[in-house]
């Protein structure tokens, strides 16, 4: 696992969009919490997928297929079995919010846990900070009343940004209802309340 962590650290070292090693470490920690409450989970699969989940993300790397092959080679080099590699790759290539906008992919319990852990790190106080950090990186404005949040987007539409505040309505507020595990849902509800208070206060000050 230390070798996986070192590999990921190097892959994400130049990230300034909120998908850096600190994000990965928080997702790994949340994954461990969720594993402890789900006896059917396989911690080797889930923790490895948590470490690797953003290495092949198409919004972060130019050639996701080549990156996926590189991850497969890395896992083989570390003596992961063919079945383990298949399971891990299946999770990290199907868990993202954008991938699941037009289709809904059924993940195994390990994938459900990592997806919940990643989504928990997108909400609450950290989630607010990451959204503004991401928006700033891509040159989005914080807020513009004339731009309404969009509904029913496909992946291509989702990737065309509007405003950071719209992102709360277009994704972040929806996450509690999309959680797979009970524990994550409970945490997500608290984090959503915190974000709702923030957005209300933000709009009050804005006006
Ligand atoms: P996924 O990788 O699951 O498809 P995203 O692409 O939405 O998820 O990226 C994960 C995180 O990046 C979000 O939770 C958020 O913090 C940030 N992010 C993505 N798109 C935006 C956006 N348009 N505005 C602000 N933050 C964003
Ligand atoms: Ni992530």
Keywords:
HD/PDEase_dom; HD domain-containing protein; binds adenosine-5'-diphosphate; binds nickel (II) ion; Hypothetical protein af1432; mainly alpha; HD_domain; 207 residues
Short note summarizing the structure:
This is HD domain-containing protein. With 207 residues, the protein is mainly α.
Q: What is the third-level CATH name, the topology? A: Hypothetical protein af1432
* Mean residue pLDDT: 96
Total beta strand runs: 0
Termini separation comes to: 49 Å
Beta content = under 5%
Bound molecules: adenosine-5'-diphosphate, nickel (II) ion
**Level-2 CATH architecture:** Orthogonal Bundle
User: Which geometry do the CA atoms define?
Assistant: globular
Number of domains: 1
Radius of gyration: 17 Å
- Percent of residues in helices: 55-70%
What is the ordering of alpha helices and beta strands?
HHHHHHHHHHH
Write down the CATH class. Mainly Alpha
Our count of helices gives 11
Give the oligomer, counting copies of the same chain as homo and different chains as hetero: single chain
Domain HD/PDEase: 16-132
Pfam families: HD
Protein name: HD domain-containing protein
């Amino acid at each position: 696992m230390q070798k996986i962590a070192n590999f990921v650290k190097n892959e994400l070292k130049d990230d300034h969009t909120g998908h850096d090693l600190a994000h990965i470490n928080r997702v790994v920690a949340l994954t461990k919490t969720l594993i402890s409450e789900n006896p059917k989970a396989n911690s080797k699969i889930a923790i490895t997928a948590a470490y690797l989940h953003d290495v092949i993300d198409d919004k972060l790397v130019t050639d996701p297929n080549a990156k996926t092959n590189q991850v497969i080679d890395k896992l083989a080099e570390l003596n992961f079995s063919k079945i383990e590699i298949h399971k891990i790759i299946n999770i990290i290539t199907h868990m993202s919010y954008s991938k699941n906008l037009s289709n809904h992919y059924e993940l195994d319990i390990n994938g459900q846990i990592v997806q919940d852990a990643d989504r928990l790190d997108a909400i609450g106080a950290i989630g607010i900070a990451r959204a503004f950090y991401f928006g700033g990186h891509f040159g989005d404005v914080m807020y513009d009343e004339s731009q309404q949040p969009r509904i029913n987007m496909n992946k291509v539409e989702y990737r065309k940004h509007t405003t950071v505040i719209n992102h709360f309505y277009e994704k972040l507020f929806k996450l509690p209802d999309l959680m797979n595990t009970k524990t994550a849902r409970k945490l997500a509800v608290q984090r959503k309340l915190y974000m709702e208070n923030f957005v209300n206060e933000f709009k009050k000050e804005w006006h």
